[in-house]
Amino acid sequence: MWRIRNLLRKMNAKKSYLMVIALISIFIVVGYFSYAMFTSNQEQKEAIKIIAGTLTGELKVDNIEVDRLVVNQGETKEFTITLRNNNDRTARYLLYYTGTLPDGLEAGYVVEEGIQIPPEDNGRNIAVGTTETYKIKVKNNTTSSQTIQLKLDVGLEKFDLTVPNNGHLFEEIKAPSIPEDTPMREYINEENTEYNDETKDKMFVYHHERGDQQENWTEEELTDYRYIGADPNNYVTFNNEVAGWRIIGIFTVENEKGEKEKRIKLIRKESIGSYFWDDKNVTEGVLPEDGSLHSNDWPYSRLMMLLNPNNENNSLLTSGGQGSLYWNKQSGNCPYYLSSVPPCNFSDIGLTSEAQEMIGDAKWYLGGTASYSGSTNGLASHFYGYERGKNTMYGNFTNWIGKVGLMYPSDYGYATSGGGNVTKEQCLAKAMYSWNNSKDCWNNDWIFNGKYQWTLTHSSGANDRIFLVYSSGRVSYAESGYKDTEVHPSVYLIPNIQITGTGSKEDPFVFTK
């Protein structure tokens, strides 16, 4: 009997021991989960607190701290957005816009080399002191000005962020595809990769906002293709001058009927001489009505009369002067009042009949500006708009249909590739008036030649001022009667030109009808 009692005692002790072990295990598990839940709740509270305002983000639109994008009616505009983490730790960021875009309003990010895309669904971590740059394009085809409200959420790096119900992420806006019938399509650098020895034979793609004279132009029509860099392969044998001309690019051009065509634009490599843009004088009785000594209205300028056809008997020629000498490949009396100009002898370098047949009538834009010296009004993109605008001096013509013109200031600006210390993008964000201080801009621009060169564009703030490329690399104006300025004729070829060659100096392009 006692043996049975001892056995029961041992079993009870063992049971008690097991129960104690079980209870201890339960306490450990409960304690662990209690601690984990406490820790998790604390981190969630911290995240909520940070989203509420402990962490911040520096958001700028075109270098200004604003939270909205404003686009006028009919305008297409690109905004540069920068997002910087100025906190003492890595943070998570989510950029989006609120509200629904109305019909006719499109907004999205643009993919370019050196530019990031905005954070996606759950946000993106940005390290301390890091700045990200995005490019947002907005197309406003509505009937009124539109505002897009930006929102920025910031949180701890370990926690995903979510877009609220009334928020929307920006999606990619892809550039329009290059039409198959675009001249020299195989020479276009569609990816816009950097200018180097491998891409110097390619044209780069540029998209523009509408000028005042480009109403209802499509995005594709506002897109042009340009050679850039210090010495691209854009040499042309034209007018019997071997490698004597260069291609500026491919542009949408209106012909004499108002029809839009993609056309090749050329400029003569060497100057035909240094001539006045205009030199009308009071003693001749042919002054502009405003009483100025010279005109900055291209259709009435004596340089236009020298270069273009049908000006042999123009009433504004100086007494004894002859017009159309360059077009007619002739030698004669210069159509200028002042005698301090080179002889007008174009019997060797004037246009041949074959060259004349390949030059088409085109609309040349004659808009101007009075303000151009800062980064808010003097970029290549600004000049592109001025040229195609309606702002002129004393009612000057806003456009002209003709054969031979000059380069635009924007042609010079967009031809840069930038250099080692200043990139192309930085050059295009700098007023051309200040390019004399940026060697990387003008020294990597094939149009620059270290001399003064006339452009077609006038200053709307003075009645006799014309913009020119200075020998220092800057763009500014001078009097149209300034004599020491080179003339480089520029032309648009007719469509459907046949092309051979590679564009190098040794194997220049050759055009035939």
Q: What does this entry look like structurally?
A:
- With 513 residues, this protein is α+β, with helices and mostly antiparallel strands.
- The chain is 17% helix and 27% strand.
- It has 7 helices and 27 strands.
- A hairpin with a 5-residue loop joins strand 15 (241-254) and strand 16 (260-268).
- The longest helix has 53 residues, at 2-54.
- The radius of gyration is 34 Å and the shape is elongated.
- The relative contact order is 0.11.
- Mean pLDDT is 86; it is low at 1-5 and 26-50.
What value does the Rg take, in angstroms?
34 Å
How much β-strand is present in the residues? 25-35%
Query: For the residues shown, what is the average pLDDT?
Result: 86
Indicate the structural class.
alpha+beta
The major sheet is characterized as: 10 strands, mixed
Q: Terminal Cα separation, in Å? A: 127 Å
Shape: elongated
Tally of DSSP helical segments: 7
Helix content: 10-25%
**Runs with pLDDT <50, length 5+?**
1-5, 26-50
What kind of oligomer do you see?
single chain
DSSP strand tally:
27
Descriptors for this entry?
513 residues; single chain; alpha+beta; disordered N terminus; 27 strands
Brief sketch in words of this structure:
The chain has helices spanning 2-54, 302-307, 353-358, 380-387, 409-414, 424-428, 439-442; strands spanning 58-61, 68-71, 76-84, 91-98, 105-109, 124-126, 131-140, 146-156, 167-168, 171-172, 188-189, 203-207, 223-226, 235-238, 241-254, 260-268, 331-332, 344-345, 362-365, 399-402, 404-405, 453-458, 465-469, 475-479, 490-492, 498-500, 509-512.
